[in-house]
Amino acid sequence: MHVIIGGAYNGKTEYVRRLVGDQPVQFCTMETAAASDERLVIVGLLDWLRRTEMDEAQSLQAVHDVMKPDTIFILTEVGRGIVPFEAEQRELRDRCGRLYQYLFEQATEVTRIWYGIPQQIKGVK
Known about the structure:
By secondary structure, this protein is an alpha/beta fold. It is 41% helix and 24% strand.
């Protein structure tokens, strides 16, 4: 499994498109991921966490259930910005951070994209 992380609009999707080349992949969200047998590129995890009514353990299990060795997760970095004033937003960031930690632990490769420049932080160099 490969995790790609970076800020919004930093070139993550373009990096993945170059990475997979001509291989057939399906870009999807968590809502549509379970229905596919293709190689998945899962996007929008933060938005899914915001919308889901699952508790933290259930959302972790849902992500675990769609993971395959060739799955790619594209994650938006949310922990380096201004801390939200609203308690709900802070709690969402905390849940998201714990889910990201789990994904990083499970991943064989982790790549950070910063303004289009990839930096391998786990796995093959």
